[in-house]
Specification:
single chain, alpha/beta, four-stranded parallel sheet, 20% strand
Length: 317
C-alpha cells in the first residue's frame, strides 16, 4: 500500500514590531526582523488597526511609560531592559545580521557589539546586573558585514584583551567606528593611546567622566591620544549624582577647556526606585550642557531654562 505524503506549505506568519520608548535603532528588534524574514514571515511595524500572529515589544528604559493600549495579536513577547534585564535573544536570532531596512539605516552603517558586560560595578549602571563581567561576543568583520561605518555599543572595550585585538583589526580594516557608550580613560596606556589615535573615528572619541577623580584620568588619556596625532573631538558622559557643586565643577571643567571637549549630562536614575524624582538642578544642568549652542554661548549661572529663573540661584543655596 502506497502512502501519499501531502506537502503542506507553512503559512507565513504576520509579525508586528513595536518600540515603546526609543527611536534609536534597536539591535534586538532588527535581528528579530531578520530572523522572521528569513523564515518567510511578513514583518512590519505594529499597526493597531491590523491583527498579528505575534508582536515583539521592546522597552529600553525602566522609567518610561509602557505602551498603554491593547495589542491585537495571538502572541505578545516583551523584551529589553525596561521589561526584564535578564532576558536575551535566542542564539539563532542573536547571530543574525540585523535588518537595517526596518529603520532605514544608511547602507554604509552597521550596529553591534564586540564584547558584552563590564568588570566595573558602578552603582548607576545596569550593565553588570544585565550582562555580568566582560566577555567576548562578535568579530568586527561579522558586525560590519561589509559596511564602512560601525556604531559599537560595547560598555568597556578597553577592559578586554579581545577588545583591544578587535580595535587593532578595526584599524587594519579601515572601518570608521564610534564606541557610543564611552571608553574608560583609566585604561588608556601609551600603547592603547597609540592604537586609538590610528582608529578612523566617526566624529569623536567618547569617555566616561562620572566622578571628580576621572577628570584627571580623562585629561591624561586625551593628552596621550593627542600626542599620537588625534585632532578630533572628545565627548564626556557625566552622570549627575547628589552634589550640585561637584557635578557642576566636573561638567564646567570641559567648558573652560573649550573647543574639542564636550560634556554630556545624564541625571542619575535609580532603577530600584520607579518613583524617583529627578532634582530640577540636574534637569537644568543637562538642559544647558547637552544643547551645545547654549553651552558655548553662556555660563550656567546665566542660563534661563524657564521664564523668571536664572541658574545663578543654585549657587546661592
Amino acid at each position: 500500500m502506497t502512502t501519499n505524503l501531502l506537502m503542506i506549505e507553512k503559512r507565513a506568519m504576520n509579525i508586528g514590531i513595536l518600540a515603546v520608548d526609543s527611536n534609536f535603532p534597536n539591535l534586538a528588534l532588527m535581528k528579530i526582523s531578520s530572523y522572521h524574514k528569513a523564515r518567510g514571515d511578513n514583518v512590519e511595524w505594529y499597526n493597531p488597526l491590523c491583527s498579528y500572529d505575534k508582536v515583539y515589544i521592546a522597552k529600553v528604559f525602566s522609567f518610561t511609560p509602557d505602551y498603554g493600549y491593547y495589542i491585537n495579536a495571538d502572541q505578545v513577547e516583551k523584551g529589553g531592559t525596561g521589561y526584564d534585564i535578564k532576558k536575551v535573544l535566542l542564539p539563532e536570532i542573536d547571530r543574525m545580521i540585523p535588518d537595517y531596512d526596518l529603520y532605514n539605516v544608511d547602507k554604509n552603517l552597521a550596529y553591534g557589539f564586540l564584547t558584552r558586560g563590564c568588570p566595573n560595578r558602578c552603582k548607576w549602571c545596569v550593565v553588570p546586573a544585565k550582562e555580568g563581567n566582560i566577555t567576548t561576543y562578535m568579530d568586527i568583520a561579522d558586525v560590519s558585514a561589509g559596511r564602512k561605518n560601525v556604531i559599537l555599543m560595547d560598555n568597556n572595550i578597553l577592559a578586554s584583551n579581545y577588545g583591544l585585538q578587535q580595535i587593532e583589526k578595526i584599524v587594519s580594516m579601515g572601518v570608521r567606528v564610534d564606541f557610543n557608550q564611552g571608553l574608560d580613560a583609566r585604561l588608556v596606556t601609551e600603547d592603547v593611546a597609540k592604537l586609538l589615535a590610528k582608529v578612523k573615528w566617526i566624529k569623536r572619541i567618547r569617555f566616561g567622566c562620572d566622578t571628580p577623580g576621572q577628570i584627571a584620568e580623562c585629561e591624561r588619556a586625551t593628552a596621550l591620544i593627542d600626542k599620537y596625532g588625534y585632532k578630533g573631538e572628545y565627548f564626556f558622559y557625566c552622570i549627575l549624582l547628589n552634589d550640585f557643586k561637584e557635578a557642576f565643577t566636573r561638567v564646567n571643567h570641559w567648558r573652560v577647556k573649550g573647543g574639542r571637549f564636550l560634556p554630556h549630562c545624564q541625571p542619575y536614575r535609580d532603577l530600584n526606585n520607579p518613583r524617583q524624582i529627578i532634582p530640577q538642578w540636574q534637569k537644568d544642568l543637562a538642559g544647558w550642557a547637552d544643547k551645545k549652542w547654549v553651552f558655548r554661548s553662556c555660563e550656567f549661572k546665566d542660563f534661563t531654562p524657564r521664564k523668571g529663573f536664572k541658574c545663578r540661584e543654585y549657587f546661592q543655596k
